[in-house]
Specification:
heterodimer, A: 388 residues, alpha/beta, Peroxisomal Thiolase, Chain A, domain 1, 13 helices, B: mainly beta, five-stranded mixed beta barrel, three-stranded antiparallel β-sheet
Chain lengths: 388, 130
Amino acid sequence: MERVPIAGVGMTKFGKQGQRTSRELFGEAAGKAFEDAGLSPDDVDEVFFGNFMGELAEQQGHSGPLAADAAGVTAPATRIESACASSGAAVRHGVNRIRNGDVDVVLVGGAERMTNLSTAEGTAGLAAAADALWEIKSGITFPGAYSLMANRYFHEHGGSREDLAEIAVKNHEHAVENELAQFQRAITVEDVVEAPTVCSPFGLYDCSPMSDGGSAALLVSEEFAEDHGLGPEVAITGTGQNGDRLALQDRVSMTRTPAAERAAEQAYEDAGIGPDDIDVAEVHDCFTIAEALALEALGLYEEGEAIHAATNGETSAGGELPVNLSGGLKAKGHPVGATGGAQISELTKILRGDHVNSDAVSDAEVGITHNAGGTVASCVVNVLEVIA
Amino acid sequence: MSDDERVPDAGYDDWLDAAENGEPYYLESPSGNGWLPPREFDPETGERELSEEPLPESGEILTSTITNVAGPSFADDAPYVVAVAQFGPVRITGQVRGVDHEDVEIGQEVELSVGVNDTEGERLVVFEPV
């Protein structure tokens, strides 16, 4: 299918900035994307804005037009809600609108304000992505749901608490020099294993943090890019999205994520590539086990093998297939509605060569993003390629 | 009704009533897949002819976790054990009680009952070792 150039990207620093509203966070991210692209709000034909918990955290619904306001845009604007995959889905909507020939310039991304809530309120807010009857009423939290997956994974495939810890250690290491990341500090396996337990087997460092932040990207048609002399270096060449039963209990397997498998298959076919072509990946490591599940669903590892990838150094900056060079959700932060857009922003910079960790993959031509909602009842996969 | 009376969730609360009366059930599709209500369709096959079947008396724990950090609705309950257990063709989420948290294991045989959440007094699915 037609490739969709990424004219510009931007994101706020992720972290604890609970006094800032999501509209302000998105406005900042959009401003950076306009500067990066050399475009202005007048150029935008449509806006897709990802946000998950605005009603709970800010008593704010109807945030599509509010996001457009914040970015100085007057255009059709729609909020896309797909839990933590909200802005990945927003990106995909933008890609599809441009490919349909309906529009030339789309502003996509998302924002989330979370740390104005207490830990308990935030935990309850995130749990709203689970089944309200059969999961939440039993006391499931999101760390709890992924813990259920992790413990079953250990039972079926092996792997250890230390293997999970190595994933967190790697992603923290990647974030050390990333000024946009929430945690710019290295941790050790001992730090992870000895941290207070949230839900067995996860300690505090197995979990992505509560974060506030915004992300944005300007997608354009090839014709528009050429007519305006934009010279974009990276394009989205494949996109896929799929779904699964919302509740974990309704899935045949708790150690596989078929929504991601199907989304990946669709994205690979769309881009005309396969898993062997991937040079670098940004995946949805909301909890340490989630990175292993993502790598297996993307076809980058066989089932039951990705748990050892970080331990073996294969997915670190110096490894064969660097994963989450941005620091991932784990260390970069996870303002849920902004995460999918931030993956696009960071991967675009990594491929262009202007990310602090670009040198780790200086010859990279093809990257992939994996953005999941809930326990991967939603998943959006996008393929990015260097085009200039 | 008064403002503080909770409107029941049709399907879910009916199922808890049945479980409390010792008659828990599941919905089975012609393909043999099992689901919990409310369901109009088998989501795997799209089949619509779902029949109520009695739930097997015991099930097997597929996975569990000890939850230390809870949301406000379970603040006074933590720590507690959440598990998914297989009862015939249907899998159910609930809290494991009547056993030390550290002794809950995958493969353990459990029976289903209905308990109460300590924090808010709401009903919930409970598993207890056979």
